[in-house]
Amino acid sequence: MRKILSILFLLLIVITLVSCSDQNKSVTIDSVDILAQIDTVGTIHVKELYNYTISGSNQGTTRLMKSNIENFQAYKAPHLAENADLETEGLEPLKVEKENNRYQVTFPTEDENKQVFYSYQISDVVTKYNDMADLSYSFFELNQLELHDVAINLQTPSKQISKDTFLFFHSRQQPEIQTADGSIQYQYNSISDSESYPFRLIFPAAELADRPVDQAKDIKDSVLVSEGSLQWRYQNIDENFNDSIGLIAVLMILVLLIGSALFFFHPNRKRLPFDNKALLSLLERSNPLFVRYLNNEAKLSEEDIIAVFFSLNQRNLISISEVPSEVNAGTTFRFTWKRSQVKLRESDQYIKEWLFTRKDELGPYFLLESMAAPDQKIQSRTEKNNYSKVFKQCFERWRELIEEQPSFQNVKNTYIPYHLFSFSLVLLTISLLSYFVFSDVWSRETQYVVTIIFTIFGSVVVYFKCHKILMILLFVESFILSLFLSMTAATGIFLIFIVLAGTVTVLIPSSRWKHGSNELRRAIKLAKKLIKKNQYPLGVTPKVIERQMQYAIILRQENKFVQQCNAIPATLLASGNYPLLNNPKFTVAAFDPSILLTAPQIEIDRDEKGESVREA
């Protein structure tokens, strides 16, 4: 019962708020008449007659005006006034409160229908040239309400419309122009609060008799040419844009079909007849470092040092043991290099010289905790930063040695169909975008600049072989720019085309994995899936399980794997040395790369080139 009452109470509050909102937003503008007279100095004297319908408790309205507005006044209009050609003398002024560019006008009575007369001046918007005066303006740029039945009258200083007076509308809605009583008249049925309808008026410069020339040049011919082209685009924008609908629709179908074919028939998706048991066996026979390399999309990062230890261990070059910690009361893992006559690979020799710098009767060794625990000799922050710098330098050199090995080279190659397809998408996107830009009503300078920038960007994308990140940036920038185009059916379809092209580009792999690498990647994916579900088949001996633990750690699935390891009987571990299984949770925490590599402080002295300068 309480819940029902609470819901009813909330509904009552919502209904009350909505009704209050409707009351406060109960001002409609039924008609607007504007008379704008330009004087010989270039100041525009504006008179406006607004017819409001008020319902509810509203007793005022707010006008947002531009910063170049002066002497804004509001009056109660004469009864049944027909137009804005009124004088302020004898009119009842209304209360106007100004805050920055916001004017709050208070109505005097509670009549439902009100007529309000506004007067103000606009300065610094007319530019005088040698031959012509140029005015670009909009009366509706800061509307807060929809306006209906709007009529505008423009008068030049001479109050005569000469053959050298021209009015251009910079909007897709082109009203008819009439001239009467020395003024230019036009009107709109309605103007929404999101529309501005700017115009450009040019008239003979001689009419600004009391204003000096602002810019000493002739503009008439250039203005007529540029405005003629612009007006043609305004009048034909829907037709020009929508002519491309059929082409874009066909391209979208082709992109979808070709993209789907490239995705579903990609060589990486080929499945040879391997069962799950064979795939897991393939994984557990593979070099842990190579497994980590493939899992990281054929890249090596600093945390892959952990996989190196497991690789050396499985190749019987080092042993792993749990020993007392040197920095706390717990334990840590020790990696001891075994005595062997086997010739080491250059990368293994480098690891040995880089990390295994301490030595005792068992041989060269390295403590896992030394990757995270600061050396006692290191005191200052500068010394710590230097050690971190040396670690990175040594790692980079080791990575170069690893990537020079044949097994780490050419694990994948370029998928040519993807790059051809991506190149086509870049070309199509830039071409369609350029078409829309040049068909729109932007200035020629803007059109050329935008087209050149995107052409250069597209060339960069192609130069870098259609790298996915660059491709995504290109589609994102194209989508954002398209939002500023004139909105038509074609624009909407083009936006869908960009989204489709970007999605297909992301989904299609840009590289083709070689046969062996591709199957191992399948095995990695399967192992991670089974570990997450606690369904990975554990080995029957501790040695095999410890090996599986190593793969779980390098695949970052160690926490899930530990849940299965907890079921290992203690008697099974008593028959040998299995340090990773003694305390699986401790093992997981000890090999956490986020802790080990936060501030690596390897106990080693090396010069700036990463060469060893101290023997163990």
Q: Give the number of helices.
A: 19
How confident is the prediction overall: mean pLDDT?
A: 84
Query: How much beta, percentage-wise?
Result: 15-25%
Major β-sheet strand ordering: 5-4-8-2-1-11-14-13
Low-confidence stretches: 1-10, 12-24, 599-616
The rounded Rg comes to: 39 Å
- Characterize the overall form: elongated
Helix proportion of residues, in percent? Answer: 40-55%
Find the count of extended strands (DSSP E, 2+ residues): 21
Give me the secondary-structure topology.
Blueprint: H1 2-24, E1 27-38, E2 44-54, E3 60-64, E4 69-76, E5 92-93, E6 95-99, E7 102-106, E8 113-122, E9 126-128, E10 132-137, E11 147-155, E12 166-169, E13 178-180, E14 183-191, E15 199-204, H2 220-242, H3 245-264, H4 276-284, H5 288-295, H6 305-314, E16 318-324, E17 331-337, H7 346-355, E18 358-360, E19 363-367, H8 381-403, E20 412-414, H9 416-439, H10 444-463, H11 468-482, H12 489-507, E21 511-513, H13 515-532, H14 542-554, H15 558-565, H16 570-573, H17 579-582, H18 584-590, H19 593-596
Parallel strand pairs: 1-11
Antiparallel strand pairs: 1-2, 2-8, 3-7, 4-5, 4-8, 6-7, 9-10, 10-15, 11-14, 12-15, 13-14, 16-17, 17-19, 18-19, 20-21
Helix pairs in contact: 3-9, 3-12, 4-13, 6-14, 7-8, 9-10, 9-11, 9-12, 10-11, 11-12, 14-15
Concise account of the structure shown:
This protein is of the alpha+beta class and 616 residues long. The protein has helices spanning 2-24, 220-242, 245-264, 276-284, 288-295, 305-314, 346-355, 381-403, 416-439, 444-463, 468-482, 489-507, 515-532, 542-554, 558-565, 570-573, 579-582, 584-590, 593-596; strands at residues 27-38, 44-54, 60-64, 69-76, 92-93, 95-99, 102-106, 113-122, 126-128, 132-137, 147-155, 166-169, 178-180, 183-191, 199-204, 318-324, 331-337, 358-360, 363-367, 412-414, 511-513. Helix 4 packs across helix 13 (515-532) and helix 9 runs antiparallel to helix 10 (444-463).
